[in-house]
Design brief:
By secondary structure, this protein is of the alpha/beta class. It has two domains: about 60 residues, Ubiquitin-like (UB roll) (Roll), CATH 3.10.20; about 120 residues, Cell division protein FtsQ/DivIB (Rossmann fold), CATH 3.40.50. The protein is about 35% helix and about 25% strand. A hairpin with a 4-residue loop joins strand 9 and strand 10. It starts with a helix and ends in a 10-residue tail after the last strand.
Length: about 240
Amino acid sequence: MNLAASRARPLLIALLLLALAGAALPIAQRLNGQAVNSVRVAGKFKHVSRGALEQVVADQITKGFFEVDVEAVRIASRALPWVREASVRRVWPDSLHVAIVEREPVARWNDEALMELDGTLFQPHGKASELDLPKLFGPAESEREVLAAHGRFRSVLGPLGGGIESLRLPARGGWRVMLANGTTLVLAQGQDAATLQRFANAAVKEIAEHLDQIEQVDLRYAGGFAVRLKQVPEKASGG
């Protein structure tokens, strides 16, 4: 009996494994066929349309819950102009959760793109022209330099009020700073916030009340600065 039983045991084990495999196959087929029945999207949605994101995600869901390519969904979500980062995860039993981080522009660049705080450029669509942002200009690859200078200059010129309308780094060097009132400050190559600080100190004390009448201040002088007043239109004479 013992000999017969020992000989039969491998056969019984093989039959049991075969039965389990046969039972597992329909289960696996059902799981692979499990549909994605809901999609949840999360984010601030200040510039990104919730509907647009949902449509992008829906277009990528061509397979079941376990087969959907979450990386493809993430890449497609990131391709939206205002999306900086996206994460995607499956949530049992039939949901897909997508979370996005929107881009946050701090300036315009060369009237062609928007710039983030780290100097990253992007070109959005829609309401970008309506954003009230400082205008920065400069040669290629100077984005971070100009943005950093804007931060320094803004801090120095703050007491004058109104802020900086635009900052330009010409290809030949130097800086051109346009204040919100239209006055342009011209700096030579190598001059920086210290030069502006001297001007700001003088302006606050001596010419602050006349600043709106000044068209340009040339700071490229070692001992001071030159001022050019705005032209006042002549009144038509009667008679």
